[in-house]
């Protein structure tokens, strides 16, 4: 749940966070534009495998064997509470291995320093544990290519976790196509060396610069070229843009992020391009986001229409809707339990039901089952009365905006163009296409 805290957390970040909490899309004329995919003379792209895993493995209270394979079992309903997507990297001259969470909802790459005092396992406090052993720690002193910056990272996420530390640069080694294309070094990548964090894992934020959480020693905000920009600076890709497909299971392909290109084997139909709305009071994109215009059900019943600000956040396992939308969907498909304030239904009854999300007249279909959990997964302790039931698992944003996390994003192919402030969406391909992958460089403009 690495969406940035929408309320106040660190005074320093207040200007950005406040503006966004009252976010009103500035440009409501969200025209659909045709995408022009120009075949670039030189194809430059970097595809990294993302693996899905449970963020808090080994914990007793989700009744989950958090191993990768378990998470990947062919699950047709629910069971993805806390599943997130991770990328493996190596950092520094001595190639220290780390695993970072892929996050479009933040904009800084940071690693646990070997001194992070929250490393370890504390059974009385399941949350707030940095799983340093699993995700790896980074000892900057042992890397000859590390340089310290005169700046600090202070970040606070929507799940209350925080990270504080110094910024530096070091070489980051990537393994495109899971090592199939060898290794690739991106030099002098800015990264946070975090000595104080209770996040369970380090993060690779790939959002817009305006969302960066770095300040200089006078506490003035500093913007810098993050990993996608460094790839472009070093001429490994044409522009700082990337596309992401996160999948439910690995029967089709692996989840992945492709920097610098769109992989046309990963989606069906058209890829539509949308300008990223600016939060009120801002003159640039801040969140990877889109204007949501309409929600409909299978029978075309309209649940909502208008213009709402919707954040597209891979770092958030679940999705968050405005309260009235939750109630509208809940009362249509589920029974209500007032004791727990939950909507529940026999899982079987939910199969084949979809929710359609429309952006500027283009609609994307998401199975309702993406938004439910089995009662076993949902409750911390057993609740026999809900045995065999599925719980509608979308929480309230507390205002008019939407947070579309992995439960939404698994149904789309998403392109993010950091340079031109645009996002592209297409329906994810559910069948493996026996095509030669034709990758085109991203030129959305
Ligand atoms: C695996 O994922 C694909 C795409 O989401 C889905 O169509 C298929 O039903 C899934 N397989 C199972 C057994 O759930
Ligand atoms: C993480 O640390 C912050 C700051 O100390 C605290 O407010 C928050 O509750 C902690 N979160 C968890 C999940 O432990
Ligand atoms: C760190 O220093 C390098 C080299 O001067 C600079 O390119 C980079 O932008 C700086 N990063 C931050 C976060 O200040
Ligand atoms: C998919 O992931 C698995 C496990 O990480 C790996 O062995 C395999 O090579 C990957 N496939 C591709 C096409 O990258």
**What is the level-2 CATH architecture name of the largest domain?**
Beta Barrel
The biggest beta sheet is recorded as:
6 strands, mixed, barrel
The count of domains is 2
Gyration radius, in Å: 21 Å
Would you tell me which CATH topology of the largest domain applies? Cathepsin D, subunit A, domain 1
Query: How large is the count of helical segments?
Result: 7
**For the residues shown, what is the average pLDDT?**
80
Report the top-level CATH class of the largest domain.
Mainly Beta
DSSP E strands, number: 28
- Global geometry: globular
Account of the 3D structure:
- The chain has 445 residues and is mainly beta.
- It folds into two domains: 46-236, Acid Proteases (Cathepsin D, subunit A, domain 1); 266-441, Cathepsin D, subunit A, domain 1.
- It is built from seven helices and 28 strands.
- It has helices at residues 14-21, 68-72, 132-135, 227-233, 323-333, 375-378, 406-409; strands spanning 46-54, 83-91, 96-103, 109-113, 137-138, 147-156, 162-174, 184-197, 203-205, 214-216, 241-245, 255-259, 261-263, 267-275, 289-297, 302-312, 320-321, 335-337, 342-346, 354-359, 362-367, 372-374, 389-392, 395-396, 402-404, 412-417, 422-428, 439-441.
- It has a six-stranded mixed beta barrel with strand order 2-3-9-4-8-7. Strands 21-20-15-16-25 form a five-stranded mixed β-sheet. A four-stranded antiparallel β-sheet has the order 18-19-23-22.
- Strand 4, helix 3 and strand 5 form a beta-alpha-beta unit.
- The longest helix is centred in the last third of the chain and has 11 residues, at 323-333.
- The chain is globular and about 60 Å long.
- The chain starts with 13 loop residues before the first helix and ends with a strand.
- 48% of the residues are buried.
- Mean pLDDT is 80; it is low at 1-42, 57-79 and 433-441.
- The chain binds 2-acetamido-2-deoxy-beta-D-glucopyranose (4 copies).
- One 2-acetamido-2-deoxy-beta-D-glucopyranose (NAG) binds next to loops.
